[in-house]
Amino acid sequence: MWVACGDDGGALDPTDAGGIVPFDCEVRDAPAGGGKIPDEVLGVLEVHCYGCHGEPKLPAAPMSLLTWVDFQGCHFDGQRVPNYERMRIRINDEQTPMPPIRLPQLDDRERGILNRWVQRGAPQAP
Ligand code: HEC
């Protein structure tokens, strides 16, 4: 079980679905293994993101981005923005990009893969 973080979702850690769930959050059954991220997207995440948002997670990084549910949820900072939308903002942010500016940046192809996935609502791989 996990808590979806949509526009009307709550500011909840998706792993915290056992806690108190505000009325406007949607509690769903988690897909097996947390849901599958499309291979093309996973390829980019593995190269550029999982050094910090993977396993083990860098302590300073707010959340893991290993499963589809990780992207649908919110990290717990009191705001109702799903992690996939936060990703979209940061990979297109020239001032404070992800990956952080001192590291090799996404190229246009890689950024396009992630942007197109988010534009489609970050669906699970079939
Ligand atoms: C070198 C480690 C590192 C790498 C690599 C990295 N991140 Fe991060 N990320 C962080 C840290 C630390 C934070 C928290 C500080 C901040 O928001 O800048 C963060 C924050 C975030 C956030 C939360 C932003 C918010 O609004 O709260 C998202 C989303 C994110 N990263 C996505 C990504 C994605 C996607 C990639 C790969 C394309 C990536 N990161 C690569 C370290 C990293």
Question: Can you walk through the features of this model?
Answer:
This protein has 126 residues and is mainly alpha-helical. The protein has a domain at 35-119. It has helices at residues 39-48, 50-53, 68-72, 83-91, 108-119; strands at residues 2-4, 26-28. It has a two-stranded antiparallel ribbon. Helix 4 packs antiparallel against helix 5 (108-119). It is globular. Mean pLDDT is 83; it is low at 7-23. Heme C (HEC) binds at residues 48-49, 51-53, 58, 60-62, 83, 86-87, 90-91, 96, 98-100, 103, 106. Residues 48-49, 51-53, 58, 60-62, 83, 86-87, 90-91, 96, 98-100, 103, 106 line the site of heme C.
Query: How many separate helices?
Result: 5
Which ligands, by name, code or SMILES, are bound? heme C
Overall mean confidence score, pLDDT: 83
**Proportion of residues in extended strands:** under 5%
Which structural class do the helices and strands define?
mainly alpha
Main beta-sheet annotation: 2 strands, antiparallel
Strand order of the largest sheet: 1-2
Distance between the termini: 20 Å
In terms of per-residue confidence, which ranges show pLDDT below 50 for 5 or more consecutive residues? 7-23
What is the element string, with H for helices and E for strands?
A: EEHHHHH
Shape descriptor reads globular
Rg over CA atoms: 14 Å
What fraction, in percent, of the residue positions are helical?
A: 25-40%
Tell how many strands the DSSP assignment holds.
Answer: 2
